[in-house]
Design brief:
Order of helices and strands: EHEEEEEEEE
CATH architecture: Sandwich
Oligomer: single chain
CATH class: Mainly Beta
Helix content: under 10%
Number of helices: 1
CATH superfamily: SOR catalytic domain
Largest sheet: 6 strands, mixed
Structural class: mainly beta
Number of domains: 1
CATH topology: Immunoglobulin-like
Distance between the termini: 35 Å
Radius of gyration: 14 Å
Shape: elongated
Strand content: over 45%
C-alpha cells in the first residue's frame, strides 16, 4: 500500500512507459565532481499531445543521497505548448545518488521515475 505522498505520484507501474512517464537518460557511472548531462523525456515511446487543453506543465528533478535528505536539482516550466516535453541540463555529484524526475500533466496529475547514478 502506498502512503499519502507516494499516492500522489503515478509511475510506469501504473501506465507502463507510455506518454506520461518521465524517462531519465544519464550515465550510470560518473566521475566524482565532474559535470554530466541529464535528459528527461516525457512521452518517449508514445508522444504526449502537448496542446493547450492537454499538456505537460513542468518537469522537476531531485537527487536522493544515501546518507542525506534529498535535494531539489532543477525545475523546468514548460507551460501549455506544442513543444516536446524534453529537457537537458548538466550536474555533478560527489557521492552516489538516485535521481527522481517528476512531471505534471494538467489533466492526469503527477508522474515520476528514478535512476541510480554511481560515483566512481
Amino acid at each position: 500500500m502506498k502512503n499519502n505522498i507516494e499516492g500522489l505520484f503515478k509511475t510506469s507501474e501504473d501506465e507502463g512507459r507510455e506518454k506520461h512517464v518521465p524517462v531519465i537518460h544519464c550515465p550510470e557511472n560518473v566521475e566524482k565532481g565532474e559535470y554530466f548531462d541529464v535528459t528527461v523525456v516525457v512521452g518517449e515511446e508514445v508522444p504526449h499531445p502537448n496542446t493547450i487543453e492537454h499538456h505537460i506543465k513542468w518537469i522537476q528533478v531531485y537527487a536522493d543521497f544515501e546518507n542525506k535528505p534529498p535535494i531539489h536539482v532543477a525545475t523546468f516550466d514548460l507551460g501549455p505548448s506544442f513543444a516536446q516535453p524534453k529537457i537537458t541540463f548538466s550536474m555533478k555529484a560527489e557521492e552516489n545518488i538516485k535521481l527522481y524526475a517528476v512531471e505534471y500533466c494538467n489533466l492526469h496529475g503527477l508522474w515520476q521515475d528514478s535512476k541510480a547514478v554511481k560515483v566512481v
